[in-house]
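4.2 Preliminary Data

To establish feasibility before requesting continued support, the project team ran the inverse folding procedure on a target of 329 residues. The structure was first converted into the token representation described in Section 3, and no sequence information of any kind was made available to the design step. The complete token record follows.
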């Protein structure tokens, strides 16, 4: 299969490209704006062409599509909730205008289109799990603009008969995740002896999905999904944030005294949970339990200082100071 992977230089996108090239022999072209989160080195070991540009730029999209592809898979997004609270602008542009430009390009060419989305579009749930027919009730500028993109995708299937698919993943973790997110942030702070900033009471619950399981799930939906449908792809285990941080303390051997409760995130969603029966019925199953995946992830960060050192000594420091009101060591 020939794929255009938008946002393929980011965390999940680059893991997906690796799976497609190595395990499926796919031909892949990546279109990525290389924001702070998009990094060439995430694709360094792969021989895939990278077109640098935004999905909101129709000329770059046309360049990346070249003579045509079998499908467009769109990971391109601004992905950090805290940044969407501080500066929502890019979230609106990329998720609304960017998704629209890609959909138009897909419609002109009659190309199958898969939108990578998130459990956050459903909002928070105290008990039970969301299904694909649950209402979208997003609560942050990140999740609201992602939900808007999902609705636009669905409208292109309904109105124009475009072959669209939506994959809503739960919280991903694994190699190549930018250290603004909970797990890599805590792992790197623990390795450096920096405080581990837990928002609020730390009792928020997330449903953890190993990034390779999500990548396989997206491939599965692309091959076997019914056009026009959305599929939840949830992880096998849920865990409170405090429990995640305690496990990281154990795995890294950091002192418990690093744990620090800090001011809560405004509008913080309490719990996310996805029911994934629909994608399971297509034959997908998560393979990596949280305990094993977290161990693998901690080991990857311990062994890849070459990957994270330039990030942690670069612009990330200024972001960290703004967000946490203190410096990194
Ligand atoms: P990421 O921030 O690591 O990567 C995003 C990538 O998109 C980067 O390479 C960035 O350069 C690129 N990008 C941003 N704006 C762009 C634009 N306008 N044009 C082209 N490229 C652009 O994010 P991620 O965690 O890999 O998330 C990928 C997708 O998966 C997103 O759509 C996100 O909403 C979704 N998702 C993420 C999670 C998670 O836990 N990380 C869970 C479920 C779904
Ligand atoms: P995050 O990785 O930002 O993902 P999301 O908000 O999209 O679920 O955060 C995961 C959880 O961890 C979330 O409840 C917020 C919390 N969190 C902290 O407690 N401290 C932190 O420094 C960060 C980044 C997140």
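Position-by-position output of the design step:
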């Amino acid at each position: 299969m020939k794929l255009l992977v938008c946002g393929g230089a980011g965390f999940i996108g680059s893991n997906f490209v690796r799976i497609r090239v190595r395990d499926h022999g796919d031909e892949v072209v990546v279109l990525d704006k290389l924001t702070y989160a998009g990094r060439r080195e995430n694709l360094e070991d792969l021989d895939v062409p990278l077109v640098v540009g935004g999905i909101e730029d129709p000329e770059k999209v046309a360049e990346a599509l070249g003579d045509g592809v079998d499908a467009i898979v769109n990971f391109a997004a601004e992905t950090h909730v805290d940044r969407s609270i501080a500066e929502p602008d890019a979230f609106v542009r990329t998720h609304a205008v960017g998704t629209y430009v890609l959909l138009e390009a897909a419609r002109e060419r009659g190309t199958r289109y898969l939108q990578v989305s998130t459990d956050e579009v459903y909002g928070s749930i105290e008990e039970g799990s969301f299904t694909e027919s649950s209402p979208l009730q997003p609560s942050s500028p990140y999740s609201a603009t992602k939900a808007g993109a999902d609705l636009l995708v669905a409208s292109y299937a309904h109105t124009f008969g475009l072959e669209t698919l939506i994959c809503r993943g739960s919280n991903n973790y694994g190699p190549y995740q930018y250290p603004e997110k909970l797990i890599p942030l805590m792992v790197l702070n623990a390795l450096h002896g920096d405080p581990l900033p837990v928002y609020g009471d730390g009792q928020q619950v997330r449903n953890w999905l190993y990034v390779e399981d999500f990548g396989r799930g997206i491939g599965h939906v692309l091959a076997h999904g019914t056009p026009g449908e959305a599929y939840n792809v949830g992880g096998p285990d849920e865990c409170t944030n405090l429990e995640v941080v305690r496990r990281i303390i154990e795995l890294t051997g950091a002192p418990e005294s690093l744990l620090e409760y800090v001011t809560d995130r405004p509008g913080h969603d309490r719990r996310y949970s996805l029911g994934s029966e629909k994608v399971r019925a297509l034959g997908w199953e998560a393979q990596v339990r949280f305990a094993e995946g977290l161990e693998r992830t901690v080991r990857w960060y311990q062994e890849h200082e070459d990957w994270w050192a330039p990030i942690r000594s670069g612009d990330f420091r200024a972001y960290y100071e703004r967000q946490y009101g203190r410096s990194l060591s």
